[in-house]
Design goal:
The complex is a heterodimer of chains A (379) and B (339).
Chain A (H helix, E strand, L loop, with lengths): L6 H17 L11 H16 L17 H14 L8 H14 L2 H13 L4 E4 L15 E5 L2 E12 L6 E7 L11 E7 L5 E6 L8 E12 L3 E2 L5 H13 L6 H17 L7 H26 L8 H23 L9 H10 L8 H12 L8
Parallel strand pairs in A: 1-4
Antiparallel strand pairs in A: 2-3, 3-7, 4-5, 5-8, 6-7
Helix pairs in contact in A: 1-3, 3-7, 4-5, 4-6, 7-8, 7-9, 8-9, 9-10, 9-11
Chain B lengths: L6 H16 L2 H9 L4 H12 L18 H13 L6 H13 L4 H12 L4 E5 L14 E2 L6 E7 L4 E5 L16 E2 L6 E6 H39 L1 E2 L2 E2 L4 H27 L2 H26 L10 H13 L4 H10 L5
Parallel strand pairs in B: 1-3
Antiparallel strand pairs in B: 2-5, 3-4, 4-6, 7-8
Helix pairs in contact in B: 1-4, 2-3, 4-7, 4-8, 5-6, 5-7, 7-8, 7-9, 7-10, 8-9, 9-10, 9-11
Classes of the chains: A alpha+beta (379), B alpha+beta (339).
Protein name (chain A): Acyl-CoA dehydrogenase
Organism (chain A): Streptomyces dysideae
Pfam family, one (chain A): Acyl-CoA_dh_N
Chain lengths: 379, 339
C-alpha cells in the first residue's frame, strides 16, 4: 500500500501545471449555460486540445496522451487548482466516449472521438422522458426500422447542455413487443440539427438554459450511428451509468480546489470560529474523496471493474458539493444572495447533483440491495 | 501509487478476524467489565502471539515495528470484535517509550509489552492551550495494566512517570472500558522538551489507532444490523425490504467506507491533519452507525443484555477518546497543507 508517485508521474504533473499556468484565462469565462459562455468554453476546449490536454487519458490516436487513470487524476488536481474553466464537453467525454471505447466500432471511434476532443462537436445526453425518470427502462421514445437506418420519434427531457450542443446520444425503444421493459432498447447517436428535431431550452432555477426538451418527429439515424447491437441498449447504457457514477464524472481535484477556495473565503472573513467546523468538514471530505478515488483507481488498475460501490461515490460527491457551497454562501452573508458570482454559479450547479446521474434514492437502493444484500421490496 | 492493502495485509486481517470470531469476545467483554480478567488476559496473549503489539515496538527492541498500516489493519479487527483492554494505550505507550531520548525505559518495558506479558495504560493531563494534543485524563484499565504511564506537560517540558496502582474504578458509560483517576506521584522515567516531542508523536498514533478501532466497531454494528433486518419480520416481510430502513443502512455504509481510506491514508502519511481527519470521520461514522443500529433493532437494542450494547457504548466512548471531534477539526484547520 502506498501513495507515492513515480518521477514520470511527477514530471507529467509538472508539465500540466506549467501549461495551465501560461494558458488559463486570467478572468473567468462567461457562464457555460449561456450562448456566449458556451462558445467561449468551446474555444477553450480547442486551446486545450491543440496541446493535447483536453482528454489526457485517451489514446494518442484520438487526441489524448495515453496518460492512464492515475495521471488523469493528477491532471484534474492541477486543472482545478489552476482555476481553469468548466468543461463544456463533459457529457460526451465522460459518458459517450467510455461507451464507444467498450462497445463502439473502430469506425465510430475514428469518426466521433477526435471532434469530441477538440470541442468542435459537443454532445448532449438524451435519457429521461416526461414519464421515465428514475424508472428509465419504462421509456417510450421509439426507433422504427427504415431503409438504411432508424426513424426516431417521441420526447426526451432534462437533456443537459442540449440548448447549445450539436449532437446527442440516448436510448430508444426499438422493439415494443419485447417481454420486459429493459429489453428491446437501442443505443443511438443523432444530430440535434437534423430534420424533425425541435430543441426547446428549459431554464434552470437561476433562469439559465442549462438543459432542454427534445421533440423528435421521424428523425432519420443511419445504421452507423447505432452503438452495439440493436436491442442491447440497456446493457450498454448501464455500463455507461457505471462510468458516470464511477470515477470519471467528478474528479477529486475539483473538490480539493473547492475546499481550498472555501478555506480562503473563511480566512478572508477573519476565520470566524463558529464556521470553523463546517470549513474543516469540507477539507476533510475532499481528502476522503481523493483517497477513496485513489483506492478505486488502484482496484480498477488491478483489473477489477467499477461495481455498485460507484453508488457510494455518487452520493458522496453530490451531497458534499452542496454542503460546501451552502457553507460558502452562509459565509458570504448578504452577499451570498447575489447571482452571477462564481460561488452562486457553483451553488446552483451543485443543487442538481443528487438528482441527475441516477437520483440518490436510487443509489441508496443499489447500495442496500447490491452491497449490503438487503431484500428487494416495493420502492 | 497502489492505494490498496496487499495480500499479506489482507491475510493478517483475515487471520485476526478468525481468531477473534472463535474467541467469543462478548463473554470476554462481560467478564472484563466485572473486573474478572482471566479470559481477557488469555485473549490478550493470543492477540500478542498474532504480533499485534510487536507492530508498535521497534525492531531494535525485539518488535516488528513501527508498522502503522498493519496497526490500523489490526485495530479495525479489534474494534470489529469489541475486544476489551487498554489496546490503544499499550501500543501508544510502546511507541512513546521507543521515542524517548534515553533508551533505558524502552529496554526495561518494551520486550514484555511486545510479547503481551504486560499491559500499559497512559494518561495525558491537559497540555498548554493550542497545543493540538488531546487530553486523556482517565487511566483506561489501570487495574489490569502494570505499566501505568502519566504525562504532565508544562509550557517548557513534559514529564513522564510510572504511576502507582490506582484506586477504585469510576463508573463508565461503556462498561467494557474501566476508567480510573490518574494516580499521582511515582517514579520519573523521563523529563524534558524532547519528551514532549515524543509524546506528540505517540499521541498521533493513539489517535490513529482509535480511529481504526472505531471503524471496526462501526463495521460490526452495520453487519449486525443488516443481519437483523433481514430476519426480523413485520407486516409479513423482512423490515430490511422497506426503503426507510434500507436508506439508513446505505448511509451507514457510505460513512464507514469513506472513513476507511482516510484511516489507511493517515497511516501512510502520519500527517497530523490526516490523522485528525481520520479520527473525526471514523468516529462520527461509527457513532452514526450506532444510532442507526439502535433504531433498527428497536427495544431489544436498548437492553444491556443484548450483545449489540457492547458495540453501541464503545462507539460513543471512542468518539471522544484521544481527541474530540471539535479538537480534530481544529487540527485540520490549523494545518496549512494543501492535500
Amino acid at each position: 500500500m502506498d501513495l507515492s508517485l513515480t518521477p514520470a508521474d511527477e514530471a507529467f504533473r509538472a508539465g500540466a501545471r506549467a501549461w495551465l499556468r501560461s494558458h488559463v484565462p486570467s478572468t473567468p469565462l462567461p457562464s457555460l449555460e449561456t450562448e456566449e459562455g458556451f462558445a467561449a468554453h468551446r474555444a477553450w476546449e480547442a486551446e486545450l486540445a491543440a496541446d493535447r490536454w483536453s482528454v489526457v487519458n485517451w489514446p494518442a490516436e484520438y487526441g489524448g496522451r495515453d496518460a492512464g487513470l492515475i495521471r488523469w487524476l493528477l491532471f484534474e488536481e492541477e486543472y482545478h487548482a489552476a482555476g481553469a474553466p468548466g468543461r463544456v464537453g463533459q457529457n460526451g467525454v465522460s459518458l459517450l466516449a467510455p461507451t464507444l471505447f467498450d462497445h463502439g466500432t473502430e469506425e465510430q471511434r475514428a469518426r466521433v472521438l477526435p471532434s469530441m476532443a477538440t470541442g468542435e462537436v459537443v454532445w448532449a445526453q438524451a435519457w429521461s422522458e416526461p414519464e421515465a425518470g428514475s424508472d428509465l427502462a419504462s421509456l417510450r421514445s421509439r426507433a422504427v426500422r427504415t431503409s438504411g437506418g432508424w426513424l426516431l420519434g417521441g420526447q426526451k427531457t432534462w437533456s443537459s447542455r442540449a440548448a447549445f450542443a450539436d449532437r446527442a446520444f440516448g436510448l430508444f425503444r426499438s422493439d415494443p413487443d419485447a417481454p420486459k421493459p429493459h429489453q428491446g432498447l437501442t443505443y443511438l447517436m443523432f444530430d440535434l440539427r437534423a430534420p424533425g428535431v425541435t430543441v426547446r431550452p428549459i431554464a434552470r432555477l437561476d433562469g439559465k438554459p442549462a438543459f432542454a426538451e427534445l421533440f423528435l418527429d421521424d428523425v432519420f439515424v443511419p445504421d452507423e450511428d447505432v452503438i452495439g447491437e440493436p436491442g442491447q441498449g440497456w446493457r450498454i447504457a448501464m455500463s455507461t451509468a457505471g462510468n458516470e457514477r464511477g470515477l470519471m464524472l467528478r474528479s477529486p481535484g475539483r473538490f480539493l480546489a473547492s475546499a481550498e477556495r472555501l478555506r480562503g473565503l473563511w480566512q478572508a472573513q477573519g476565520s470566524p470560529p463558529e464556521a470553523g467546523n463546517r470549513v474543516a468538514d469540507a477539507l476533510i471530505g475532499a481528502r476522503a474523496y481523493q483517497l477513496f478515488t485513489y483506492a478505486a483507481a488502484s482496484r480498477f488498475l488491478d483489473g477489477e471493474s467499477i461495481g455498485p460501490e460507484s453508488s457510494l461515490n455518487k452520493i458522496f460527491w453530490s451531497e458534499y458539493d452542496i454542503a460546501l457551497h451552502e457553507t460558502a454562501l452562509d459565509l458570504l452573508g448578504a452577499e451570498g444572495e447575489l447571482a452571477d458570482t462564481d460561488w452562486s454559479e457553483r451553488y446552483v450547479f451543485s443543487l442538481a447533483g443528487p438528482i441527475y446521474a441516477g437520483t440518490n434514492e436510487i443509489q441508496r437502493d443499489i447500495i442496500a440491495e447490491r452491497l449490503l444484500g438487503l431484500p428487494k421490496g416495493r420502492r | 501509487m497502489r492505494f490498496l492493502l496487499d495480500a499479506e495485509q489482507r491475510a493478517f486481517a483475515d487471520s485476526l478476524n478468525a481468531l477473534l470470531t472463535a474467541a467469543d469476545t462478548p463473554s470476554v467483554v462481560r467478564d472484563w467489565s466485572r473486573g474478572e480478567r482471566k479470559s481477557g488476559r488469555a485473549l490478550w496473549s493470543r492477540i500478542a502471539e498474532a504480533g499485534v503489539f510487536a507492530l508498535a515496538v521497534p525492531e531494535e527492541c525485539e518488535g516488528l515495528g513501527p508498522r502503522p498500516v498493519e496497526l490500523t489493519v489490526a485495530f479495525i479487527e479489534l474494534g470489529r470484535h469489541a475486544v476489551p483492554g487498554p489496546l490503544v494505550e499499550t501500543t501508544t505507550a510502546a511507541a512513546l517509550l521507543a521515542e524517548l531520548p534515553d533508551p533505558g525505559p524502552a529496554k526495561r518495558f518494551l520486550p514484555s509489552l511486545a510479547t503481551g506479558e504486560t499491559m500499559a495504560t497512559l494518561t495525558c493531563t491537559p497540555p498548554p492551550a493550542g497545543h493540538g494534543k488531546p487530553t486523556a485524563p482517565y487511566a483506561l484499565d489501570a487495574d489490569a495494566a502494570t505499566i501505568r504511564l502519566t504525562v504532565s506537560e508544562s509550557a517548557a517540558a513534559a514529564e513522564l512517570r510510572l504511576a502507582p496502582p490506582p484506586g477504585r474504578p469510576l463508573p463508565s458509560l461503556d462498561p467494557g472500558r474501566r476508567l480510573f483517576g490518574v494516580p499521582s506521584g511515582g517514579e520519573v522515567l523521563a523529563v524534558g522538551p524532547q519528551v514532549g516531542v515524543a509524546v506528540g508523536r505517540a499521541v498521533l498514533r493513539a489517535r490513529l489507532a482509535t480511529a481504526a478501532q472505531a471503524l471496526g466497531v462501526g463495521l460490526a454494528l452495520l453487519d449486525r444490523s443488516v443481519a437483523y433486518v433481514r430476519q426480523r419480520k413485520q407486516f409479513g416481510v423482512p423490515i430490511g425490504s422497506f426503503q426507510a430502513v434500507k436508506h439508513q443502512l446505505a448511509d451507514a455504509e457510505l460513512g464507514l467506507e469513506f472513513a476507511r481510506p482516510l484511516v489507511h491514508g493517515a497511516a501512510l502519511t502520519m500527517d497530523p491533519a490526516d490523522v485528525a481527519a481520520a479520527k473525526v470521520t471514523a468516529c462520527e461514522a461509527a457513532h452514526a452507525t450506532a444510532r442507526t443500529a439502535l433504531q433498527l433493532h428497536g427495544a431489544i437494542g436498548y437492553t444491556a443484555e443484548y450483545d449489540l450494547s457492547l458495540w453501541l457504548t464503545k462507539a460513543r466512548a471512542l468518539r471522544t477518546a484521544w481527541g474530540t471531534p471539535d479538537e480534530c477539526r481544529t487540527v485540520v484547520l490549523s494545518g496549512g497543507r494543501r492535500w
